[in-house]
């Protein structure tokens, strides 16, 4: 069983218990046969495998802070962008609160 678990971890199963349940292994199987049987199950059932971040696909974490160079006038007051303000409020609420306080001091927000 530990060989199956090790092979499941190597194949990146979400839950190595799935490999224990789904892989049929003969009693006399060696480590190579177990690894190939687990690989076959992983190929047949890709929904059991953890996904990975693919470069340049947009599935990774942003390497730069969102809304880094915004001015108060872009977020608050006449001519401001509600979309930018909402995005900042959802993703960086502390920064949004701080900038909103600054905007109140400058009279951009009532």
Keywords:
single chain; 110 residues; mainly alpha; 6 helices
What does this structure look like?
This protein has 6 helices and no strands. It has 110 residues and is an all-alpha fold. The chain folds into 2 domains: 2-48, no CATH class; 72-106, no CATH class. Helix 1 (2-10) packs across helix 2 (16-22), helix 1 (2-10) packs across helix 3 (31-44) and helix 5 crosses helix 6. It is rod-shaped. 11% of the residues are buried.
Low-confidence stretches: none
* Structural class determined from secondary elements: mainly alpha
Domain count: 2
- How many separate helices? 6
Percent of residues in helices comes to: 40-55%
Residue fraction in strands: under 5%
Largest sheet: none
Give the C-alpha Rg. Answer: 26 Å
Q: Give average pLDDT, whole number.
A: 84
Q: Alpha-carbon distance between the termini?
A: 66 Å
Summarize the helix and strand pattern as letters.
HHHHHH
How do the strands and helices of this protein lay out in sequence?
Elements: H1 2-10, H2 16-22, H3 31-44, H4 72-75, H5 82-91, H6 93-106
Question: What is this entry, summarized?
Answer:
The chain has 110 residues and is mainly alpha-helical. Helix content is 53%, strand content 0%.
